Amino acid sequence: MRTPAGSECPYYFEDFHRGREVQTCRLIEDNASGGRWAPELCARCPVPRITLANACPSMILEARVVSRLLGLRRGVEVSAYCTKSLQTVAEPEIGCGQCHEGFPAPLAPQEEP
What we know:
- With 113 residues, the protein is mainly beta.
- It is built from two helices and five strands, in the order E-E-H-H-E-E-E.
- Helices cover 11% and strands 27% of the residues.
- The longest helix is centred in the middle third of the chain and has 7 residues, at 47-53.
């Protein structure tokens, strides 16, 4: 679903049908220590970028709201875990490095004579 910031995010949900005003981030909502989410956090959230770069089904994301700059600016901190390699993923955009070893490399475009 499209976030208030304009990017596609699989964890964002909104419902404005027949007078409802529901906006939520299911990724932060599922985390017990996730904090309080607000729509303006979507502008600085790395989750849409991560899901666009890496669609690995073995990677589990966890997000929480953090305060930065002495509590004046809030942001979203994301951590990732791979269920296949059973390790924490340092760079979620790239992945753990073990899940995609079996996939064939993309073919380079061939020049025509």
